[in-house]
Specification:
Shape: extended
Oligomer: single chain
Strand content: under 5%
Strand order of the largest sheet: 1-2
Length: 266
């Protein structure tokens, strides 16, 4: 009798758990797993982008699409290489920059001697909750022909709106200023349809602006994570380091940063 009641209670708890999980499972299935499966099918079919990818006119082509972008060396290969290069530069710049900036902001607003902490936390977090439309309008104004960026550049002798439309990367732009326009040893070797010289070009000026916008709009969110982690460390650890004669930079490097590794990983 007791075993039957326990089994019924366990079954009821399991049903209640699945009931509460069902909205999340439905949302993830509809907007995550189903699109992933559709993308997997599209990658091995000859669907051209019009109509349904599951229509009778769409055929299975196996790995032909992958061969086209990886080995053929034509326009699909160059487009794939360009997209991959842009993503690599975006990740390599955005992730370290937003982590470093958010950590610096968190350490700054977590100082015990700092007054008006709430004001600074709100100010630094505000871009993260601001409408993307408003941020885009702000960036359009900043980088417009009559905007403050062009105004500052005009003081440095750089005139005209074409600098923002230059497709070259910032590394190539810097080297061209030094008189280096191409390195033959790199230009003669290709990877995914793009020369090694172009792989090392760096992000374009326009893409750099997008990278700065991403850092500007996300650093506030990660700042909150670092603030929570810094407060979890406690003042006792900081005071123990001071008692051992460690300076502020030493305490930050050898005590604070190692204890923040889980948050940095997140």
């Amino acid at each position: 009798m007791m075993a039957t009641k326990h089994s019924s209670r366990t079954t009821g708890q399991n049903l209640a758990g699945w009931l509460f999980l069902s909205p999340v499972i439905l949302i993830l299935g509809l907007f995550l797993f189903v699109p992933v499966l559709m993308a997997a099918w599209v990658s091995v079919s000859d669907w051209g982008g019009r109509g349904s990818p599951f229509s009778s006119n769409v055929s299975f082509v196996g790995a032909n699409n992958y061969a086209s972008i990886l080995t053929d060396g034509g326009l699909p290969t160059r487009d794939f290489g360009t997209a991959l290069r842009n993503n690599v530069y975006y990740v390599l710049l955005v992730v370290p920059l937003q982590t470093i900036v958010s950590l610096i902001l968190a350490v700054f607003v977590n100082q015990r001697i700092l007054k008006a902490k709430s004001f600074f936390r709100t100010a630094f977090y505000f871009p993260s909750v601001t409408s993307s439309v408003a941020i885009t309008v702000l960036w359009l104004f900043v980088f417009s022909y009559t905007g403050p960026v062009n105004k500052v550049l005009s003081w440095l002798g750089i005139h005209g709106p074409n600098w923002f439309q230059d497709p070259r990367g910032i590394v190539h732009l810097a080297l061209s200023g030094l008189g280096v326009n191409k390195v033959s040893a790199l230009a003669d070797h290709n990877l995914l349809g793009i020369s090694l010289w172009d792989w090392l070009s760096g992000p374009s000026v326009a893409m750099t602006a997008f990278i700065l916008m991403a850092v500007f709009t996300t650093s506030g969110t990660f700042m909150l994570l670092f603030i929570a982690a810094l407060q979890a460390i406690g003042n006792e650890t900081e005071e123990a380091g001071m008692m051992d004669g460690a300076g502020a930079l030493q305490r930050f490097r050898y005590i604070t940063v190692p204890m923040l590794k889980p948050t940095v990983f997140t």
